[in-house]
Amino acid sequence: MAGRKEVTQQTSTNHDDGRWRHLSVSVPINHRPNHNTSTQIKQKPIISNNMPPSKAKSSSSSSSSSATKKDEIQQSKSPAEFFAEHQSIAGFDNAGKSLYTTLREFIENSLDACESVNVLPDISVSIEEMTQKQFNVLRGVPGANSPGKKVVTTTDVDADATEPPNNDSGNLSSKDSKKLKDQKKTIRAGGEAYFLITVRDNGCGMAHEAIPDLLGRVLSGSKYGVRQTRGKFGLGAKMALIWSKKSTGVPIKIKTSHVKGVRGGGGGSLLNEDGSRKIGPKVSNCVLDIDIYKNCPRVLEHTQQTNTEQWIGTEIQVLVAGNWTTYKSRVVQYLQQLAIITPYARLEMSYTNRSDEKKGMNLRFERRSEQMPAQAREVKHHPSSVNNLLIQQLLEKTSTKSLIKFLTNDLSGISPSVAKKLIERLGNTYDEDMRPDELDDKQVTRLVQLLRSTQDLFKSPDGGCLSPLGEYNLNLGIQKVIEPDIIATARDKPGAYDGHSFIVEAAVSLGGKDAKEGITVVRFANRIPLLFEGGADVATRVANSKIKWSSYKIDNKKDKIGVFVSIVSTKIPFKGTGKEYIGDDITEIQQSVKRAIQNCCQQLRAHLAKRNALRDVKERKSRLLKYIPDISRSVFGILDGMRKRRLEEGDGFERIASPRRRVAGSSPMKHFKTSHSSMDAIMNDLSTGKLSEDAIKQHLTEAVEINAIAGIGDKEDENGGKSKSNKDESEREPLFLVPLYEEAKDSRHVIRHPLFDFYPIGSAV
User: Fold this and answer.
1) CA distance 477 to 335
2) Which of 25, 160, 314, 359 might form a disulfide with 256, Cβ 3.0–4.6 angstroms?
3) CB atoms within 10 A of CB 447
């Protein structure tokens, strides 16, 4: 160990005899513990039993403290090493969540690549599950499954776990049976397998020389800045590579074709002047790993071949450990919600199991719309969002030569006149022509305080830089996936919080396939689905506690209500490191979400009033039609009895009032005589058979139909608009649609209805 420094760490070991033995571990500081370096264990002399315990303890603690203080040194970690140790920050909590997050990051990168060059996305995902034995064969691991050792995987759980252990009595006791069940559940829930994931898109591709840094360096990317993006940390694909390195040790494979001069962020177009798509002349193949201690890529293969496929895009393949059993539903749910928020994309996923082909599944979401949202624009920092560190960075990077130019050019919402007022308020130590790099720390602090406290001088952040999905696409996406009975969409006016603009879009649906009773909230942030920790999200809390559903004729307990909320912003205020939900502590966002949902509910209320009216009329009609046969038979029997009685008594037939005693206080009964002419007509129709039971039934049915149609207009509007009128509802004005051609003169083609007359145009007759 000569010539090398050592770091000594003190540890204590307790023995059965009550003595403490102190061990020191010496590690060379120019090597990391994870590397294959030898460590030396130095055993200090055992403390004598004759020494009093208190003195022995104080002596050992003082020596340990002095040694620690003497030998402590400062160490630093690279970003890749830090996130490899704290992978839950990026959503890699466990094997199942890591599988889900890997898929999600690759798919969202593909969407960004397509949208950046205005190409309708075509994304295919392939997931191939293999057992540990198959993985070892693929990797060429020698002696992994030695004789006598059984490797339990998710595939052979069902076969192995169902066989009971040998028992002399032939039966399991209740205790053993319960233990076996618990073991089976544990194995099924926690069993890991290996997954070969391939994601292919038709986006802009990656430049050959940029591939290693794009995928092999943590916290590097093109999404930093004040702009609406799906991700900003620069972690997604890199964390998938780190997880692959930790779980399987297999490097990532990239195949991509790129057109020179076309890049993400709107840099160029993939279309030629004639509308055909440009094709890159070369296809790049890259196999790379990552050095987590240096945070740099390790390129294993980097070649180019001729693009014989005439293809442009990116294909990424990675082999990771995961758990499909517990996260299958999450993956399917993510793709369904992604199809809602990106109806202009074609998404396809295939899952295969090498051990059991019956477990395979395929999902396909066809493109429903060809209208893509406009690309988000990068904007400057708003004065209300700055801080000391940000202003110092801007002062160092600015190309302006004066303070007034810095305020007007490097910040948004500040005009030259406002900049002059700000400089005047700063005091005599500031000047319009002073160089930005001349400001010291105290002057920067004073400038930040003034910018954050003088909000009345600045324009509010504009939502024009954002890229919301749009009500049209949101409606199509929900209809494609959910298939609701009725849906309403709304977009609230752009808002701002802490200098960051945001837009809230919402939709409320009723019914739909596989919908559950009650309120189901689906959340999106910057057009990506949020699946976890929904109970604390602002959309969930507003929908459950801030909306009075009964005011809109909606039963939030029995109706199948779908609430969809999409928030886009230059900075989404996520809570927690996992970026899984948006807190409800920002009043501006909470109120905007509430207004958007209420707008949807107001639209639904008018439709629901009509729907309820139609339902009531339909129920009334069905009840009346139910009794028509009995009424027709009774009326015909009464009339036929009258006919027979008239034949017996002659022409002097007269209806006489009932001789029964009238109830005290009731209205007097009216005596009336039937017209002889009408009575004769009825009797004649009865005699000739023109008036029969079937005829009465037919007339009653027609009367019920007409009454049902007329009854729709008698329903009161929920807002107290038009109510029942005392006027005769049968008096209606004719309504004609103005034809584009001459009307047909032949009345044979006119369709007449109690509510309208339909005249076909002349050319159609």
Assistant:
1) 12
2) 314
3) 23
Cα angle: 698, vertex 704, 707; to 5 degrees: 140
The domain 485-611: what is its CATH number? 3.30.230.10
- Cα Rg of the chain, angstroms: 40
pLDDT surpasses 50 at 190: no
Among 585, 596, 527, residue whose Cα is nearest residue 563: 596
The angle formed by the CA atoms of residues 535, 540 and 542, to the nearest 5 degrees, is 130
Q: Taking Cα atoms as reference points, which of 426, 419, 198 lies closest to residue 315?
A: 198
Over 70: is that where the pLDDT of 458 sits?
yes
User: Given pLDDT bands bounded at 50, 70 and 90, which one contains residue 710?
Assistant: low
The tens digit of pLDDT for each residue in 413-430 reads: 888 889 899 888 888 888
Flag whether pLDDT at 92 surpasses 50: yes
The whole-angstrom separation of Cα 661 and Cα 608 is: 50
Q: What is the architecture, at CATH level 2, of domain 82-142+183-365? A: 2-Layer Sandwich (3.30)
Q: Which long-range contacts (CB under 8 A, 24 or more apart) does 652-656 make?
A: 653/679
Task: Indicate the burial class of 702 (C-beta count within 10 angstroms; 0-12, 13-18, 19 or more).
Answer: exposed
For β-strands 581-582 and 574-575, DSSP reports them as antiparallel
Going by C-alpha positions, the residue among 114, 243, 221 that lies closest to residue 527 is: 114
Q: How confident is the model at residue 344 (pLDDT cuts 50, 70, 90)?
A: very high
Least-confidence region, from 113-117, 258-262, 334-338: 258-262
Buried b (16+ CB within 10 A) or exposed e, 453-487: eeeebbeebebebbbbbbeebbbbbbbbbbebeeb
Distant-in-sequence, close-in-space partners of 8: CB < 8 Å, separation ≥ 6? 24, 25, 26, 67, 71
What average pLDDT does the structure give for the chain? 77
In the chain, where the domains are located? 6-63, 82-142+183-365, 383-457, 485-611
- Asked if the model's pLDDT at residue 672 lies above 60, the reply is no
Please answer whether residues 411 and 454 qualify as being in contact, where contact means their C-beta atoms are separated by less than 8 angstroms.
no
Query: In which region does residue 636 sit, left (phi positive, over 0), alpha (psi from -120 to 50) or beta (all else)?
Result: alpha
The token duo for 594 is 């509430």
Rounded CA separation 330/91 (Å): 13
Count of residues making up the chain: 765
Q: What single-letter amino acid sits at 757?
A: D
pTM for the full predicted model: 0.71
Which string of DSSP letters, residue by residue, matches 308-334? TT---EEEEEEEEEE-HHHHHHHHHHH
* Nearest alpha-carbon partner for 242 in 314, 278, 189, 290: 290
What gap in Å lies between CA 108 and CA 236, rounded to an integer?
9
What value does the mean pLDDT take over residues 269-287? 78
Which CATH number applies to 383-457: 3.40.50.1970, 1.10.8.50, 2.40.50.180, 3.40.50.300?
1.10.8.50
CA distance 552 to 600: 10
